């Protein structure tokens, strides 16, 4: 039976469509492991190590990470730790069967990161609230400024860790970045008030210092 030109175009288009649906371009590393029930600290330690890498659990003791040289190294190290603890572990390279499955796994990664971003946003709100209270009570001291500066550094480090594990660009990341900028600006305003008040509270010291430098008697 001869296939007409229109039929061949339709068949080719359908084939390409099916191919696009079935093929997945992303590749993941899958870690499947088993550890002894006791001591429990071993299981907890492995779980924490897995989560610190940003991995997603597909089910108990089975997790995935985006395939990269760094993740291959980290999972091999973790595999060795599991074996040394008396367990068993395999690290495999895998991919999704289709784009729907691929999107589902990516969504799991994003959900984990979104929860962390939400927690971060809450801490930023606490930080801004604290600065507002200290401003209202005029608690402009270097001790408070130093404490707030250290807290801002912690927020910066925290956001950096979340973003490092945000493999698929969670939308809420932009909100977290803006909120951190709000915290930075709020601290700058607070610091300016501290410097201003501190300068006005020591006028006589400035005069004595100036007279000493010119040789004039106090």
List the helices and strands and how they pair.
Layout lengths: L4 H18 L5 E7 L5 H13 L3 E4 L2 E5 L2 H16 L3 E7 L4 H38 L5 H23 L8 H28 L2 H12 L4
Antiparallel strand pairs: 1-3, 1-4, 2-3
Task: Describe the structure in your own words.
- The structure is a single chain.
- The chain is α+β, with helices and mostly antiparallel strands and 218 residues long.
- The protein folds into 2 domains: 25-95, Alpha-Beta Plaits, CATH 3.30.70; 111-204.
- The protein is built from 7 helices and 4 strands.
- Strand 2 (56-59) and strand 3 form a beta hairpin.
- Helix 4 (99-136) packs antiparallel against helix 5 (142-164), helix 4 packs parallel to helix 6 and helix 5 runs antiparallel to helix 6 (173-200).
- The longest helix is centred in the middle third of the chain and has 38 residues, at 99-136.
- Residues 1-23 have low confidence and may be disordered.
- Terminus-to-terminus distance: 114 Å
Taken together, the total number of domains comes to 2
The quaternary structure here is: single chain
Which spans have pLDDT < 50 for at least 5 consecutive residues? 1-23
Mean pLDDT: 85
Largest sheet: 4 strands, antiparallel
Topology as a string of helices (H) and strands (E): HEHEEHEHHHH
Structural class based on helices, strands and sheet pairing: alpha+beta
Which percent band covers the strand fraction?
A: 5-15%
Shape: elongated
Q: Radius of gyration, Cα only, in angstroms?
A: 29 Å
Strand order of the largest sheet: 2-3-1-4
């Amino acid at each position: 039976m001869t296939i007409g030109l229109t039929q061949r175009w339709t068949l080719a288009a359908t084939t390409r469509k099916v191919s696009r649906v079935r093929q997945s371009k992303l590749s993941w590393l899958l870690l499947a492991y088993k550890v002894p029930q006791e001591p429990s600290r071993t299981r907890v330690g492995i779980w924490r190590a897995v989560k610190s890498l940003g991995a997603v659990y597909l089910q108990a003791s089975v997790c995935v990470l985006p395939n990269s040289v760094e993740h291959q190294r980290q999972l091999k190290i973790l595999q060795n730790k599991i074996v040394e603890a008396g367990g068993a572990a395999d690290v495999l390279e895998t991919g999704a069967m289709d784009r729907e499955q691929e999107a589902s796994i990516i969504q799991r990664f994003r959900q984990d990161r979104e929860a962390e971003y939400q927690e971060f946003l809450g801490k930023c709100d606490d930080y801004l609230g604290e600065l507002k209270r200290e401003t209202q009570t005029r608690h402009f001291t270097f001790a408070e400024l130093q404490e707030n500066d250290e807290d801002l550094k912690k927020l910066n480090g925290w956001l950096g860790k979340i973003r490092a594990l945000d493999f698929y660009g969670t939308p809420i990341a932009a909100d977290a970045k803006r909120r951190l900028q709000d915290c930075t600006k709020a601290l700058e305003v607070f610091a300016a008030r501290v410097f201003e008040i501190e300068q006005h509270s020591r006028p006589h010291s400035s005069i004595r210092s100036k007279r000493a430098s010119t040789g004039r008697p106090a």
